[in-house]
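Exercise 7.
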Amino acid sequence: MKPQNDEEFEDLEDIEFLDLDKKTPHPSDIDEEDEDIVEEDYEEVPKRQKPRRQAPPSEHRPTAKKKKKRMPELHIILLIVILAILAIAVIRLMIWNKGTRLQIDTTEDTSEFDTEANDHIIPLNADDPNYVAPNADDELHILLLGNDVLVDGEDEGEGFADLIRQKTGATAIYNAAIPGSYVTCAQEEYSSSFRMDGLNLPTIAKYLNTGDDSVIRQASEDLGELFTDQMRSALEELKKIDKEKLDAICIFYDSRDFLGQRPPGDTSATEDVSITNYFGALNASLQMLQSTYPDARIIIMSPHFAHFVDENGKSYSSADESAKLGAPQFIYVNRQYFSALGNRVSFVDNFYGTIYEDIADKYLEDNIHLNTEGRKLLADRYLAALNRFGTYEFKPE
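Solution. The predicted structure, written as tokens, is:
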């Protein structure tokens, strides 16, 4: 704003004007005394202060901005996620471990689903299920090898062989079952200390393969009065077999090896042919029979369920794995199954699929021997396996 008169100039303080034409000395041109003067001059000159801005009235003061929230670090987020997953897993595990109460309808009939048979049924020629071996006649020829389960009921005409004959019309059935015999032998070589070894499955198979009956005759003599008419009749049946006509071989032994706790053998030893363990004795016998009768279809019938009775007359389940029983019965059934697979013969599972623990008492006369109804079930199971591929035309009597 321009002053209006001279009085306004008088009110102005004395102003020191700067001579712009005067050169400002360089610091190097100033001596110490002058330097002090310069410093004093600088000190005397007050610094120019910036005028402070007057804050606007509070009602017009702008609102302060909020600070931006800082995002959490990535590793913190990952840690939180991992901890959450672990917490959920622990909770679910605790719930699962606690379990829930199973509700069972005891009135429902579940007999159809109680067990599942582990059958393994194959034809004589696996490459051609319809293959029928050449035979000298149309008659069905069957060889039965086993023990008591194939002999019981014969006196009443209700034995296993009798039932097969009635259901098929076959007349050429050679029942060479020897009561009291085993699948295994106690020793590799025959000894009079174990006389039944001369009548057990490996010895019979060897005789059929080689024709040498010296061990059988020696065992018969060593048994003396224990050599029964049924044993003698079975050995006579072996001599009647016509190799060119034989259609099928049924191997059916009860649970005698299990009850006697004969060694079951090890299925990992696939080449085992030791006749002193269950698995090896089966392998050895099957291989000799296959060599002797290459055109005969072999079917192994597993033992049915049996009870174990100790020296005090106390009965145990054959599925019991306690030290009292040693190897449970299903171990022997398992060895039969793997022997059948390895030697490419058929296997019928009676332990789980025919007469199993839940229904065994209905078909057992004692802890091991079957009644007539039990034998009928087993005969039906054998014939179903024999004619699985429709090879034969049965003509029931």
